[in-house]
Amino acid sequence: TQLLEQSPQFLSIQEGENLTVYCNSSSVFSSLQWYRQEPGEGPVLLVTVVTGGEVKKLKRLTFQFGDARKDSSLHITAAQPGDTGLYLCAGATFGAGSYQLTFGKGTKLSVIP
Amino acid sequence: NAGVTQTPKFQVLKTGQSMTLQCAQDMNHNSMYWYRQDPGMGLRLIYYSASEGTTDKGEVPNGYNVSRLNKREFSLRLESAAPSQTSVYFCASSGTPQGEQYFGPGTRLTVT
């Protein structure tokens, strides 16, 4: 069974602070995806990282894929209240004709104005 | 484009009742998925369908059945609901090169 350990589980910070969320596994994935989920809604894809060592930026969000393609991190610079939500990482593996995603349990982020 | 739609949005069942959750996507994706999301447990895969005409079990399939009606629609059926099936259910579809998934808004199910 593949597992993705996500940390921290909860994070409450002041507006303007920086933060990093970690996603670790002992398994290798073909890609690592990050989603954000707001209360009462489904997860929405933020980014996909595919190559070991890859770094992608989305405005104030920086995503990194580990060299061995087993772990990833999400760094938010100068957090805003609009960043509040549940952040989920998901590792993709291909089998039986389709990709399946293994999700971490999520990091619930609260940014206080 | 509506993306992925799910019905109903909310449902309350008594133990032993049955119901079907409906899901449809308009993105011409081949693969579709059903998840449940519980506090502290994350998203867990119930069943998936790699393409029209195929279905496979995920991590937590017991107590559920699925039907891939056509390329657009994938339904999830609870034959005899149990309180342990109280959860939020999400349908997703995928058709992109890296398997990114697009989720519906969810169905909040309570079994009493």
Summarize the structure.
The complex is a heterodimer of chains A (113) and B (112). Chain A is mainly β and 113 residues long.
Descriptive overview:
The complex is a heterodimer of chains A (113) and B (112). With 113 residues, chain A is mainly β. Helix content of chain A is 0%, strand content 58%. Chain A contains no helices and eleven strands. The mean pLDDT of chain A is 94. In chain B, strands 2, 4, 5, 6, 9, 10 and 11 form a seven-stranded mixed β-sheet that branches. Chain B has no helices and eleven strands. Helices cover 0% and strands 52% of the residues of chain B. The mean pLDDT of chain B is 95. Chain B is mainly β and 112 residues long. Chains A and B meet through β5, β9 and β10 of A and β5, β9 and β10 of B.
Topology:
The complex is a heterodimer of chains A (113) and B (112).
Chain A: E1 5-7, E2 10-14, E3 19-24, E4 31-37, E5 44-49, E6 55-58, E7 61-65, E8 71-76, E9 85-95, E10 98-103, E11 107-112
Chain B: E1 4-7, E2 10-13, E3 19-25, E4 31-38, E5 42-49, E6 56-57, E7 64-68, E8 74-78, E9 87-94, E10 102-103, E11 107-111
Low-confidence runs of at least 5 consecutive residues of chain A: none
What is the terminal separation of chain A in angstroms?
Answer: 40 Å
Main beta-sheet strand count, sense and barrel state of chain A: 6 strands, mixed
Helix content of chain B: under 10%
Radius of gyration of chain B: 13 Å
Which overall shape of chain A is indicated by the principal axes computed on the Cα atoms? globular
What Rg of chain A, in angstroms, do the CA atoms define? 14 Å
**Major pleated sheet of chain B:** 7 strands, mixed
Query: Beta-strand level of the residues of chain A, as a percent range?
Result: over 45%
Number of helices of chain A: 0
Structural class of chain A: mainly beta
**Assembly type of the shown chains?**
heterodimer
User: What share of the residues of chain A lie within helices?
Assistant: under 10%
